[in-house]
Design goal:
alpha+beta, 6-stranded mixed β-sheet, 13 helices, 12 strands, about 35% helix
């Protein structure tokens, strides 16, 4: 991808959002503390209640200040679940793939060998250890970073050191925000990946990312569940069977039409059952599941140069109900 003349710094854009989150810790029912080597920890749902608003803010932080996130009433076929999370991005490729995507695998060392989490948020762009950043031609140079972790415990010292080494940022300038998928905030920020999941599928389909100029997505808020597999299943089903995305792209109409045809989740061989069932069928091997399943249920792709729009997929309210009930 050709780099733009000037591109936003997700780390600098997100800093005011992180400080506002910390300042509102008591009101949001989250906890701020100091972790290993002096890093800042924000528990958004592991040992504290957290809540939907904390999750909405986490979603905006994951997007690196390049997204607008709202909790809105659900309309249409998914009316059994009255509220949804709506996500838009002014820079969908950088905001979603360059920041929000949970692409940095962080595993504990000798101090906690069982600790593991996928890191998302703008700190990924400062580390830029994933090959994706070569394609994006993007690397951030913010002096402070934040990473959002889908985890039920804070990162051990070995992880803090790993992040310091990868980013060149001192521990005192690193903020880790963590919440398990089973929590209110954790479930909201995972469902809030509805647009990011679409962008990831666009990338998988080899559609040129530089031709995606804008995007917006919406998915129903899934009820939390104390069991991890059920909680993960519900957040995935919210997108796979209840997510809707509208992308605006440049280029020929035929390309936009093909993207609309191939982008929805129903193109997957594993489509048609709640995700927890699919996960169990593959004996908990996440990577054995067909990657095409991870995409929204319904898409609209508008070719901005002709003004024509193309549709693909459809909502599956029965499967959403089966998962959420």
């Amino acid at each position: 991808m050709t780099a733009a003349v000037e591109r936003p710094s997700v780390g600098r854009l997100v800093s005011p959002l992180v400080e506002a989150l910390v300042a509102d810790a008591v009101r949001l029912r989250i906890k701020v503390s100091t972790g290993a080597l002096g890093c800042r920890l924000v528990d958004a749902g592991a040992t504290v209640p957290g809540g939907l608003e904390a999750g909405r803010r986490l979603t905006e932080i994951c997007l690196g200040g390049l997204g607008q996130v709202s909790i809105v009433p659900t309309v249409g076929a998914l009316g059994n679940w009255p509220y949804s999370i709506q996500v838009g991005s002014t820079e969908p490729v950088i905001g979603c793939l360059g920041s929000q995507y949970a692409g940095w695998a962080l595993a504990g060392g000798e101090d906690d060998p069982n600790w593991f989490a996928l890191g998302s948020g703008p700190g990924r762009a400062t580390a830029a250890v994933e090959t994706l950043y070569e394609e994006l031609a993007y690397k951030d140079d913010a002096p402070g970073i934040v990473l959002v972790l889908e985890a039920g415990a804070p990162p051990p010292e070995s992880i803090v050191r790993k992040v310091m080494e990868a980013t060149g940022v001192a521990a005192e300038a690193i903020t880790f925000i963590y919440a398990p998928t089973q929590s209110l905030a954790g479930s909201v920020q995972v469902v809030g990946r509805v647009l990011e999941v679409a962008l990831h599928k666009v990338h998988t389909l080899h559609f040129p990312l530089e031709r995606v100029v804008d995007g917006i997505g919406i998915a129903p808020l899934s009820p939390p569940h104390p069991d991890f597999v059920q909680a993960m299943g519900r957040t995935n089903d919210a997108i796979i069977y209840g997510g809707r995305v509208h992308l605006h792209v440049t280029g020929p109409d035929d390309d936009a039409e093909n993207l609309a045809k191939n982008l929805p989740s129903r193109s997957s061989r594993d489509y048609g059952a709640p995700f927890a069932e699919v996960f169990t069928r593959f004996n908990g091997d996440f990577y054995a599941i067909d990657g095409n399943l991870f995409s929204p249920a319904e898409v609209v792709v508008t070719a901005v140069e002709s003004g024509r729009s193309f549709r693909g997929g459809a909502l599956a309210p029965d499967l959403v109900d089966a998962s959420f009930a």
